[in-house]
Amino acid sequence: MDALQIVVLVAALASLVCWILSLITRDTSWVDRAWSIVPVVYVWIFVAGAFTADVGSARIVLMGILVTAWGARLTFNFARKGGYTGMEDYRWAILRKRMRPWQFQVFNLLFIIGYQMTLLVLITLPAWLAAQHPTALTGWDALFTIAFLGFLVGETVADQQQWNFHQRKKQAGGDLAPGFATTGLFRYSRHPNFFFEQAQWWAFYALGATAAATAGAGVLGGVLNPTIVGAALLTVLFLGSTIFTESITASKYPAYADYRQTTSMLVPWPPRRRAVAPQS
To answer: Which of 81-95, 112-126, 154-168 has the lowest mean pLDDT?
Structure first.
């Protein structure tokens, strides 16, 4: 059994466990709890598989280290928000109220479990690709590694700024104008942490593509290769999640409409000036 087969088997078992636990506990956040852990496991399986097959490389180890740093940061942030203490994501609770019980269970099985757990395999496949092309590190690897680390730092800062805001909000009795973070990185993006999360996986894809391209795979098959589907589907997931999250926020805080007019949704960008209505 090769590394990819082992990863698929582990992913299937993890999905089954998450689904069973969601039925037993009526808590659909088990995938959220696995989100920062299973990709790290998958990548290190690819690393171990490469060295077992005598095709290990510095690049595959580097990718393992980068994903471990990603997982450690995300696990810490999720844990301090109470993610491992039985707290369900509020968005699932809202969707449950909007659906009939059987509809929500179908959604739980096909999307919350099926789609997301499959996606967590797909985003790690650039490591599998790198294992197939054990070439020496290049300047491109250095560039994409720096980019990955920069995005990791950006997400760390954004999450800390959001955490600080919610701590102040809690100390104020749960009401702190305008109701959501708007300073720091949130002055330039409504969801900077979402942007940096996606960007890290695009940098990770680029490392796998570099391995294939350096090995002579060319543009199609190298620079552009099938493992891009992971990063692309992650972006699709985040776009849908962001739109849904914003609909909830906008319904709770009237000031969010003005924030939307002046601030980029994802990509950090200088804020726009709010249009001034003409005087009659």
So the answer is: 81-95
Written as one string, the DSSP assignment of the chain is --HHHHHHHHHHHHHHHHHHHHHHHS---HHHHHTTTHHHHHHHHHHHHHHHTT---HHHHHHHHHHHHHHHHHHHHHHHTTTTTTPPPHHHHHHHHHS-HHHHHHHIIIIIIIIHHHHHHHTTHHHHHHHHS-PPP-HHHHHHHHHHHHHHHHHHHHHHHHHHHHHHHHHTTS--TTSS--SGGGGT-S-HHHHHHHHHHHHHHHHHHHHHHHTT--TBTTTB-TTHHHHHHHHHHHHHHHHHHHHHHHHH-TTHHHHHHHS-SSS--PPPPPPPPPP-
| Sign of the torsion angle spanned by Cα atoms 245, 251, 253, 255 | positive
Q: Residue 276: what pLDDT?
A: 44
- Is a pLDDT exceeding 80 seen at residue 51? yes
Q: Residue 34: pLDDT above 80?
A: yes
Q: pTM (2 decimals)?
A: 0.92
Q: What is the mean pLDDT of residues 261-268?
A: 96
